[in-house]
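Section 3.1: Structural characterization of target chains.
Under the original work plan, the team committed to producing a structural model for every single-chain target entering the pipeline before any wet-lab resources were allocated. The record below documents one such target. The sequence was received from the expression subgroup and is listed exactly as submitted; it comprises 106 residues.
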Amino acid sequence: MQEGLDEESLAIFDLLVKPDLSSRNIKQIKKVARELLFELKSEKLRIDNWREKQATRDDVKVEIANFLWNERTGLPKSYSENEIGIKSEKVYLHVFQQYPNEQPGV
């Protein structure tokens, strides 16, 4: 809560942040965490039982990776390709565990 994020966004932020970032980069990562979660919850996670089909799991994984890689929406340039790949996988695993079946309108 100290970071100015709700509990769900803070969990994503914690997965994305790394040591020794500038305050500007931290601000950008907060925005990424909020917007990524909003994007997922408004689309991909609204699919009933999204975890049960390989295609929908893959869609969620690709959505996360594309979002984090995107120059407009993604992580700061201080993140390497390898770091973004690792962060994408961590966020996907978190989402898979925490959002088994998102309810419409949540």
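The mean pLDDT is 91.
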